[in-house]
Amino acid sequence: MKTDETEPITTGCRASAAPEPDCRPSRGPLTVERIAEAKLPTEHGEFRIVGYRSLTSDEEFVAVAKGDLTLDEPTLVRIHSQCLTGDVFHSLRCDCGQQLTRALEHVEEAGRGVIVYQQQEGRGIGILNKIRAYALQEQGQDTVEANLSLGFAADQRDYQQCAEILFDLGLCKVVVMSNNPQKLTALENAGLRVVGRVELEIQPYESFANYLRTKREKMGHIL
Ligand SMILES: [Zn+2]
User: Fold this and answer.
1) Do the domain assignments include residue 128?
2) Residue 138: inside a domain, yes or no?
3) What is the CATH number for 70?
4) Is 130 a member of any domain?
5) Is 116 buried (19+), middle (13-18) or exposed (0-12) by CB count in 10 A?
6) How far apart are the CA of 17 and the centre of ligand 1, in A?
7) Which of 11, 103, 106, 140 qualifies as a FRET site for 203, CA 20 to 30 Å off?
8) Residue 71's pLDDT band (boundaries 50, 70, 90)?
């Protein structure tokens, strides 16, 4: 096991520091605030957990990070949206839990990286509405139709503050662990340099085959 969990997380890459011209564009101060940081030993390795709060809403975030984070080195990152059912209960309605586990394993293997965990449950509709959407899916709707039936957009998520957290942690060049092109575009639009993408291999289950098909066909995911 690697023993670099005590290495400090390097900060930098703020608009005021601007060490690289193509780093964070000057868009005023960050709209997230770093609150606390601690060690986080896990089944997948030793990490650090950094807590953030939004300055524009009541949203809270955590970043699970490992290793020395610097401006120049391309760094593995994932923006993981909370999925209580998948992440905690290992639901086989979706592949979220598996993706989170793979991402932690990749960061541990690389010795450095960041997973930003945003609490936008159910693509931003909340856990109760997600259960409502599941009930609609049991009547034949797919994940997109169900969200629309409930009066929501297919995807309500916003990634701007996740990008700000990556800047705050000192990153500029990122290799994104995601199948969702919208996340890559959002990070690029925020000013991060996306220099690569890593596909997260998951074990396919029949129980979420339709879910993945919908994500591929209706949401443009690369699956
Ligand atoms: Zn999920």
Assistant:
1) no
2) no
3) 3.40.50.10990
4) no
5) buried
6) 38
7) 140
8) confident
